[in-house]
Amino acid sequence: xxxAPSSAPDPAPDPALAPRxxxxxxxxxxxxxxxYRWLEDPADPRTQAWTAAQDAYARQVLSALxxxxxxxxxxxxxxxxxxxxxxxxxxxxxxxxxxxxxxEHAVLRVREPDGTARVLVxxxxxxxxxxxxxxxWSPSWExxxxxxxxxxxxxxxxxxxVLDVATGELLDGPVDRCRYSPVAWLPGGEELFxxxxxxxxxxxxxxxxxxxxxxxHRVGADPSSDVLVHGEGLDPTNYYGVRTSSDGRWLxxxxxxxxxxxxxxxxxxxxxxxxxxxxxxxxxxxxxxxVARDGRLWxxxxxxxxxxxxxxxxxxxxxxWAPESWTVVVPQVEGAVLTDVAxxxxxxxxxxxLAVHAVDxxxxxxxxxxxxxxxxxxxxxxxxxxxGVSSPPxxxxxxxxxxxxxxxxxxxxxxxxxxxxxxxxxERAPVAGAVPDVVVTETHATSADGTPxxxxxxxxxxxPDRPRPTVLYGYGGFNVSLTPAYSAxxxxxxxxxxxxxxxxxxxxxxxGEEWHRxxxxxxxxxxxxxFAAAGEHLVREGWTTHAQLGVLGGSNGGxxxxxxxxxxxxxxxxxxxxxxxxxxxxxxxxxxGRTWNDExxxxxxxxxxxxxxxxxxxxxxxxGTAYPAVLFTxxxxxxxxxxxxxxxxxxxxxHATSSDxxxxxxxxxxxxxxxxxxxxxxxLAADQLAFLAAATGLVEEHPxxxxxx
Length: 709
Known about the structure:
By secondary structure, this protein is of the alpha+beta class.
């Protein structure tokens, strides 16, 4: 493929324009128009007729895209590369996920002490249609029982089950209302702590997705007999975490209101009075706490350390829980963000800590003395991402390190105390032969206020001269860090001769909690400025041109590219906006929107409504503007971000645009916001890439040549 002059996919007949209401509300003194309010209701006959017409229009536009077939073929090859999850060791058994070429979903397997492995949970065996996903899993301390959660049709409404690891016999479940429920086992495998929502009839109408509680459950018992542990009378939007010590003595419960970057933490001595006592309550910080095998209370926290630190205290002495009394093991490191830790044993048996730090979104690994005396060694890791570190809870001289980069599928490396400065392969994911040879360039744009913004720019080795059709991807929210990762979509674009750029925007965690907060609430505009600066930088440095630049984002990233569409329609030729938030005045009324008001602000507050109206894409559509080509992709079973956002902005843009570039709404049924089958991933990505290719001028030169190998 190579570039050719083009500004958009070939125009198709105009889609059916949506009727506009003369609806204007006065909200805290703001006159707010909402002409497509009726599109919020999927059961409204007008909505059904309009979406049916949009479906037909989408099929017509997408099926005619010349590169769609070649992208689909290339994507099928690239997703044949598998993925391996980090093992979780329990006694003599190791539990992990693995997806091999040809599998629609990863399976959960167990490796026995003799090295044999067998499958415990296979989503395709549960549902041959591929609509069931494995959401979470947790083995008991002895490795004899497994709690796992599955959901169907993309709704993410997890059902909890428990099985016997040796026999595969189902011992418990399904227990419903377990969406986002952690599990913490007590020794013996007979009881576990978990989180469950109250029954719908016990909560106010419209609040069925909230009102979680922590319970103690006995395996096989009726959930109605569960013991209420925590949550009564607290914020109904709270998400809870639970952790136990391997000896069963200590229970840690945490709570955060929605996605707020702060949490409350309580600790209970279950061998004592069992009372949950506050370790951190009402503090604007996040602290993860657990009692490890050495009997100490470990604290991974950004309290007084926005880039993170690791410390210890005495669980039996509440006086030691105050931050000024902590013993710091891994201090805050300038220019780096602490992202993960694991306890290991040195060759001489001394307790040590494996610590992961991110520098400009690339991970480093190091070894620290557990007594707080400092760093022992740096561990050589290829430039890329460490997905996590794991070690046996009872101790040992080995740990597992999850690793990926732009050309390496998720794999597992092994750290050994005998060679503490290096890693060796534990289990590499199968790699398809079509993975292109890529070159990754790191560069920095300068945002509107002078802040440097880091970018990864991925291109095929030996690709033709610049400028090239380019896709810019971003997220910029919820403390999410965009680090190097294997992506079939990225590699398919790069293999075709395009350039793929990833921007590390404010709102993420690439530089710690201060970086996150610089892109939330009243500072959200910083994120959009960072993204625009990244696009301008790619043009200025010769990677691409405005006519060859497309942007892609999903969820909060859908808000990002939706705002780019309305604030900077001149910046790009194409926009792919997936599962987006777009009506920021009413986002709290649908899906899980209420849990995000700490990130964005609430329309119920006059000042915060002003922030939201300042950028809300739906409210900044201007008639007569030449908007770029836009493809909205939505998922009808999405219970996080309601598809109404995309419906409303699609209708507004189709009405307003003065260009011939299409505005397309692509809907999918029986799939939601999260995990999906591989084949559905291919179909979605092929449509997205072909749309971007048509708009940015990436065209097929030799349609009969095989995918790059």
